[in-house]
Amino acid sequence: MRTFVLWIIQLLLIPLLSPFFIGVTRKMKAQLQNRKGASPFQPYRDLIKLLRKDEIISRDASWVFRFTPHLVFATTVLIGACIPLVSTALTNPFTGDFLTVIYLIALGTFFLALAGMDTGSAFGGFGSSREMMVAALTEGGLLMSLLTLALVSRTTHLSAMAAAVSSLSFYELPPVLLAFAGFFIALLAETCRYPFDNPATHLELTMIHEAMILEYSGKRLAIIEWAAANKYLLFIALGANLFFPWGLADSLAAGDILGSLLLFIVKCLLFSAAVALIESSIAKFRIFRLPDLLFTSFIISMIAIGLIV
Amino acid sequence: MVMYYKILSTKRRLIDLRPSSDKKAALSVGWDLEAYIKKLFKGSLAIRVVTAGSTNACEQELTALSSPLYDVERLGIHFVASPRHADMLLVTGPVSRNMREALLRTYHAVPTPKIVVAVGDDAIDGGIFKGSYAVLDGAHAVVPVHYRIPGDPPSPETILRSLLEIFSDLDGKRP
Amino acid sequence: MPAFLHSQTFLLLALSAFAAGAFGALLLGGNDRRSALWGNGFAVVGSLLGLVFSAAILMTGAELTCLIPTSFPLLSLSLRVDPLAAFFVLLISGIALLCSIYALGYVNHYYRKYNLGVLGFFYNAFVASMILVVTAGHALFFLVVWEIMSLTSYFLVIYEHHEEKNIKAGTLYFIMTHIGTAFIVLAFLVAYLETGAFDFGAIKGGIAAASPFARNVIFISALIGFGAKAGIIPFHIWLPGAHPAAPSHVSALMSGIMIKTGIYMLARLCWDILPGPPPLWWGLLILLIGSTSSLLGVLYALSEHDLKRLLAYHSIENIGIILLGLGSSLVFLSAGMKVLATLGLVAALYHTLNHATFKALLFLGAGSVIAATQTRNIERYGGLIKVMPQTAFFFLVGALAISALPPFNGFFSEWMTFQSLFQGVSTFHLMTKMVFLVAIGALAFTGGLAAACFVKAFGATFLARGRSDEVKYAKEAALPLRIGMGSLALLTLLLGIFSGAVSSGFADIAASLSAFRPGEPVAAVSFSALSVTAGFASLSPPLLFAGIILTMMAVAAVFVLLTRRRTTAIGATWDCGADLTERMEITATGFSRSITTIFRGVLKPTQQTEIEYHDAKLRYFPKAGIVRMEFQDVYDAYFYRPLQKATIRIAGQIKKIQMGNINVYILYILVTLTGLLLWMI
Hints:
The structure holds 3 protein chains of 3 kinds.
Chain A lengths: L1 H31 L9 H10 L3 E4 L4 H18 L17 H21 L3 H32 L4 H9 L6 H18 L18 H4 L5 H26 L10 H28 L8 H17 L3
Helix pairs in contact in A: 1-3, 1-9, 1-10, 2-9, 3-4, 3-9, 4-5, 5-6, 5-7, 5-11, 7-9, 7-11, 9-10
Chain B lengths: L1 H8 L25 H7 L3 E7 L5 H8 L12 E3 L8 E5 L7 H10 L5 E5 L1 H5 L21 E3 L6 H12 L8
Parallel strand pairs in B: 1-2, 1-3, 3-4, 4-5
Chain C lengths: L7 H20 L4 H29 L3 E5 L8 E5 L1 H24 L9 H20 L3 H19 L6 H32 L4 H7 L5 H19 L8 H7 L2 H26 L6 H23 L4 H28 L3 H36 L10 H4 L1 H14 L6 H19 L2 H33 L16 H19 L1 H13 L18 E3 L4 E3 L1 H22 L5 E4 L16 H4 L1 H6 L1 H4 L1 E9 L8 E10 L2 H21 L7 H19 L1
Antiparallel strand pairs in C: 1-2, 3-4, 6-7
Helix pairs in contact in C: 1-2, 1-4, 2-3, 2-4, 3-4, 3-10, 3-13, 3-18, 4-5, 4-10, 5-6, 6-7, 6-8, 6-9, 8-10, 9-10, 9-12, 10-12, 10-13, 11-12, 11-17, 12-13, 12-16, 12-17, 13-15, 13-16, 13-18, 13-19, 15-17, 15-18, 16-17, 16-18
């Protein structure tokens, strides 16, 4: 019974918390610009408002456009059930494999790119083109960094990987830290942050993710923005719980779970602060400098694998 | 890093938004907005700015709204690129003939419920270009306008107060 | 299960159905409709019989040997059907069945243009020869049917002979396949020298005594020979020309099945005929070839805007992925780890099955689109989802499967390939580990780039608005075409959901090969889930599928409930106030431009601009311009053309002995005879 309740909590945790962390990142960026900024709960208000608006759908769009937001959101919720969030005892041997997670993300990206092309506007088309370019090259770095952890822990189960990394000795840590560097670059790429994409830009010629969703309105826009927030929190959760899993509960006791949840939120806040700091410090890269960065992520992870004893 | 320390340690100066005692900017209403719409957009508003042949004076004031001095984002208001994402259209400029079609399409691209605000004297009735052959004398000639913010150009403070008044709980109808 | 179903008679019955179809179609050649119906109908019957036969063999685990000697040893029928061969017969029959159903509706656009009797004849002969190739048990018989397969496919490639480039593609294919056959003959001759027999069973028995050098020669020549048929890089240059040239149902068969016969013989050779642990470098070489093939295949596919050429390059990519599985299995075999070797082989065979289904599906979809719009250029498509919704849906399923996205079958076979490569990285050290890491990197990038390519292909073909006049007259495909495509789409989904069952079937097939005998435990896969050695990885395909569907339904239900009072209006695409024309949509070339620019070192793009000015002398105001953007095939430019030039130059030198003077020729004869006489004495 308790396991069932915990699974429900795990499924709902990512969708419920993700707008908060987007809001936190925006707030920190505002603070670093000497502004007060919106409250961290502003994204919730944005989503509720969007759900109460009507929609306009282009007449050139097909069922792919209408169907994509639901699929993208569903994949983020499903991935939330595959990764360790509060406890490594809550394992998912059926779909909790890191390859499954990577390819479920790719499924969402595929349909999002199709939806960007579906309305026949010029912005959507080149947004999709750039998104597929970045996604194709990011997959290598992301896979290799998670593979480093898998080789260190001798399993590709995400919960088991978290448990194994938390019991590593100090001398076995360098590959994990190097792999984290590669993973962090992949995180910035997949969640459309600097230096890959500017989530707050108005210039369509500089958009990647935003360009694909220019035609969405009303509830579908809410679903897609929420799904993007979910993806952001998912990557942060993966980074926090796989590379720095100390504090993750290893049993299902209520006290452990509560402590682990609080520590999880603290870790995610630290990650959001890091992302906000990076976004305030560097400029967005020219698009043909991005592959260099992504190949670097790939090479760093290869070196990390070589360092595994 | 030294830069961040300097930024974080600078005292913030924000514009005071308490209603002031001097005369309120004349905010006449074109069409009345229902209360539920005002409540809907009170916490979160997405604005799309359409420059319909404007002199860009109003745009400069609108740009200043995002600065640390006025900081419109703290009120839940943000500017968006696509009219599909927008709730409010801010029209500036006297609507030149070439922009008529574009403004109309932008209006139709915004999903309901929506608000249209004409910012600046030019957008209200043509301003200094009134009567010219090249302009249509104000946004109301093309799209239904709900609110007007007069001024040539209105200062950011005026724009900010007017936006807040649009959503404040005002009793009674407007004339 | 009646024994009749897996008897020799039944197989010969299936083959004679194809023979009847072939000759009957040729005889009825005068009447287009009748010969098409006869030819494709008998192909359907023959495929059904073949399907039943192979299923019976696989279910009972029986082995069949069939020998019909005639006075010419070259023409004696010698078949041996074991589970591996039966699997390939199943594959051939299944895909041929669906392609023949498709062809019933598809070939009607050849009426009155080309002779349909010829098409029926070569088509039936092609399928029958492929079945004979995978069941051949004697090297000479194998060469005969291999040659028949190559010839019939050559005639099918040049079937639309009014087009110049089809003839050229056919000629290149003819040359390359015979170069491959030459190497295969070399391999068989070396085997004969070592064992004194041509029969595969006898070779298997006797080759243990062969020297390692002989075995290496056999391996290398077999790799080149069968690789040329399979389309591995660098022997792939015929593939992008030949597959698009053939009629679409034949392209589906060529791409889905014919190139797999090369894989079949490689598997047969390395796992069954050649005994003992193979040398380590065999597996590493195949891993490296697989990595190159997959990466280069997908990069060239990204640069294509001809729909069928794009699909042909993807075949090269998927053959690379199959080779990755085969290579890792060979490396594990050479280290003596049979369980992990099974995993690699199962992954490779499973990907063979999956690729056959989704590649056939994609080619049939492409055929429907091309038949509806009369052009192969993606740049002229667009908006076809509104007139051809079912074709679009089936093509989307194929695109999702080939991009290895869950819950379709491509994902599960790539998952298993990845797992076997991960095992390789964690088990080995130094050089082997590096090769496995390179393979993993290649596979990771290939998956992403393939998804990018299919977003381009599907998006530019079906979505948004039409880009030209040709699409205005397009109509939905006829019923037989949709049945063929729909069945393949359903098959990709089912093969994905039931991957556990399918993989355990492959484990049994692998267990029957002599590399894995005597009875080693090969249980790395089970019925409802895929799991790899002792908790390294596990995945439950049905649960993944159920998870995706249920979550989607839950999400849709929640959001519909939350927004039930909202309206949805239909409006124009946001166009910033200007009119959107078809030239403003993204083009296929533009879509992949960013990726091709990144990989310009490999793809070597060239751009030529021609501008016509209003005043040719002053050249201020351009009137019209043409920009040509092309890509060079690296192997073509740096390997084949220099080879070609060198061959012509050498031939030119040798030509000098032909002086045209008959007295000199008599002198040559005198010198040769004297020399021979002296040598004999």
